[in-house]
Specification:
heterodimer, A: mainly beta, seven-stranded mixed beta sheet, four-stranded antiparallel beta sheet, 11 strands, 0% helix, globular, B: mainly beta, six-stranded mixed beta sheet
Chain lengths: 113, 114
C-alpha cells in the first residue's frame, strides 16, 4: 500500500537553529499539506501546496516557515529560526484528487530546546 | 469561518459494544467533505471514513458508519462491535469544496475496555 514517508521521526534542535522536515508524498499525488499538533492539542493547518506553489497558508505559517518541492518527489518544510513554541508533531499529507483522501505520514516530532 | 466541534473529550466503551462520537461543524459553504481520522498511540493519522455533503446516504466502512445530518450540521461516527485496536484519538475534519485545508476538531479520546 502506498504511504507518505517523513524523516526524521524525531528531531531535537536548539532554539534559533534552522530545521528542515522532509516528506516523500505518494508518487502520483498532486496536493500536499503540512499540519502540526502541539502535544495534547488539536491538529492545526500550516500550508497547502499545489502545482509548485502555495495554495493556502495559515497565520501560523509566517516568514519563518517555507516549503519546497525541490526534486519532484520530496516535499520539505523549513523553519528558519526555531522557537520553543515550534515544538510539536509535524504531519505531512498528500492527496491525489482534492477532497478525496489525504494520506498522512507518521509525523516528525520536533523538540526545540 | 469554518469550525468543527467535538464536545466529548473522552469516551470509553466495552469491547464488542457500540459507541457514537459526536461532531458538529459550522460553515456557510454548500458543498464540502467531512472526514473522521483516527490517531492511535503511534500518532499517525489514519482515515476512517469520508462523507460528501451532497450525498444524502450515510457513509459506511465495515464497522464504522456515520450519521450525517446536513441541516443540523452534525456528523457523528458510530463504531459497532468495538475492538481493542479501536482505542485511539478520533478527529472529525471538514474541508470545503472551494478550500485547500482541513479543519479539525479537538478530538475525542476513545478507550475500548476489555
Amino acid at each position: 500500500e502506498p504511504e507518505v514517508t517523513q524523516t526524521p521521526s524525531h528531531q531535537v534542535t536548539q532554539m534559533g537553529q534552522e530545521v528542515i522536515l522532509r516528506c516523500v508524498p505518494i508518487s502520483n499525488h498532486l496536493y500536499f499539506y503540512w499540519y502540526r499538533q502541539i502535544l495534547g492539542q488539536k491538529v492545526e493547518f500550516l500550508v497547502s501546496f499545489y502545482n509548485n506553489e502555495i495554495s493556502e497558508k495559515s497565520e501560523i505559517f509566517d516568514d519563518q516557515f517555507s516549503v519546497e518541492r525541490p526534486d519532484g518527489s520530496n516535499f520539505t518544510l523549513k523553519i528558519r529560526s526555531t522557537k520553543l513554541e515550534d515544538s510539536a508533531m509535524y504531519f505531512c499529507a498528500s492527496e491525489g484528487l482534492r477532497n478525496t483522501e489525504a494520506f498522512f505520514g507518521q509525523g516528525t516530532r520536533l523538540t526545540v530546546v | 469561518a469554518q469550525t468543527v466541534t467535538q464536545s466529548q473529550p473522552e469516551m470509553s466503551v466495552q469491547e464488542a459494544e457500540t459507541v457514537t462520537l459526536s461532531c458538529t461543524y459550522d460553515t456557510s459553504e454548500n458543498n464540502y467533505y467531512l472526514f473522521w481520522y483516527k490517531q492511535p498511540p503511534s500518532r499517525q493519522m489514519i482515515l476512517v471514513i469520508r462523507q460528501e455533503a451532497y450525498k444524502q446516504q450515510n457513509a459506511t466502512e465495515n464497522r464504522f458508519s456515520v450519521n450525517f445530518q446536513k441541516a443540523a450540521k452534525s456528523f457523528s461516527l458510530k463504531i459497532s462491535d468495538s475492538q481493542l485496536g479501536d482505542t485511539a484519538m478520533y478527529f472529525c475534519a471538514f474541508m470545503p469544496d472551494t478550500g485547500n485545508q482541513f479543519y479539525f476538531g479537538t478530538g475525542t479520546s476513545l478507550t475500548v475496555i476489555p
